[in-house]
Amino acid sequence: MYCVARMSTVISEVKTEVKSKRAKKPKVEKPKVEKVEKPKTVKTKVDKYNGFKVPDRKTPSTRWAIYLYDMIKEAKPDLLKREDVRNEYNNLVTCLRKYDGFIESSIPSKYYKYNSKWIDIIDKGVTVLSGSPFRWIHDNAYNNPQRNVYSEKKTEFNTEIKQVYAPLYELIKCDIIPYMELKQHEITSKSQIERYHYQMGKVERTIKLYESRIADLYKEMGKLSEEVMKCKEPPNLTVFE
Questions:
Q1: 128 domain-assigned
Q2: Quick one: what percent of the chain has pLDDT higher than 70?
Q3: I need a surface site. Which of 17, 37, 69, 212 has the fewest CB within 10 A?
Q4: What local confidence, expressed as pLDDT, does residue 78 receive?
C-alpha cells in the first residue's frame, strides 16, 4: 500500500512540475506602432450642370424643365456654355417652382420625344388639349372653397410662363427646332417603312395562299373534265355470239 501511495505522489508531483513549466513562458512584449494620421482630403464639389439649376426629377412641376435641358444638351451642347441661356433657363425653373402644388408637367413618350410641340409652347395654355406639357392639378376641384384662388393662379401662370419662357425660346429655337424636326422625321419614316414591310409581307402571304388555292381548283377542274370526257365515250356494249 505504501508503494502505491508513493507512486501516486510522485506522478502528481511530475504533473504539477510540467504544468508549472508550461505556465512560466516568458511574455514577449510587442513594440508599439505609432499610428500615422493620413492627411484629410477635401473633396471639391463639381457642378456638372455648369450653373444650370436643373431640378429634381421627382418634382412634378419641373419635369418638363429637365426634358428641355436634355434636349438642349443633345441638339446643341454649346448653348449650355452661354451665360444668357443659363440665366433664362434658371428663371424658367424658378417660375415653375413658384407654382409647385398647382401644376404638374409631363414629358413626351419615346415616339414623340422629338415633336417640336413640346418645345414651342409660347401660344399654348395650361391644358393637355392645347398640346401644353403643363396640367392644372385642381381643374376638377369645382366644389373646393379655394377654387377662386386656383382660378387666379391659373391665369397668373398662363401669363407668367409665356413671359419667362419667351426669351429662352428665342435663344434656342434656331438650333433646337430644326434638329427635333429632323429627328422626328427619321423616327416617323422608320416606323412607316417598318409598317410598309409588314403590310407587304401580309400581302405576299395572301397572294401565295390564293395561288395555292387556285392551283387546287385547277386540279379539281381537270378531274371534272376527265369525268365529262368519259361520259361522252360510247359504253362497251355486250356482244352476243
A1: yes
A2: 71
A3: 37
A4: 93
CA distances from 232 to 17, 218, 239 (A): 135, 21, 21
Cα 196 to the chain's mean position, in Å?
28
Report if residue 121 sits inside a domain.
yes
Return the DSSP state at 61: G
Q: What is the pLDDT of residues 183-217, one digit of tens each?
A: 999 988 988 898 888 999 999 999 999 989 998 88
Q: Is 171 part of a structural domain of the chain?
A: yes
Q: What angle do CA 169, 175, 177 make, to 5 degrees?
A: 70
Domain that holds residue 169: 60-180
In 3D, which of 110, 149, 102 has the Cα closest to residue 126? 102
- Cα separation of 126 and 77, whole Å? 29
- Each residue's pLDDT tens digit, 97-114: 988 888 888 888 888 899
C-beta atoms surrounding 162 within 10 Å: 15
The rounded Cα 27 to chain-centroid distance in angstroms is: 66
Q: How many domains does the chain have?
A: 1
Cα–Cα distance, 223 to 218 (Å, whole number): 9
Contact 160, 152 (CB under 8 A): no
User: What kind and span of H or E run contains 183?
Assistant: helix 147-232
Residue of 78, 88, 108 lying closest to 176 (CA atoms) = 78
Q: Which residue is associated with the grid cell 392645347?
A: 130
* d(C-alpha 164, C-alpha 140), whole Å: 27
CB neighbourhood size of 123 (10 A): 9
- Read off the pLDDT of each residue in 42-56 and give the average, rounded to a whole number: 72
> Per-residue pLDDT averaged across 47-63, rounded?
84
- When pLDDT is cut at 50, 70 and 90, the band that residue 151 belongs to is confident
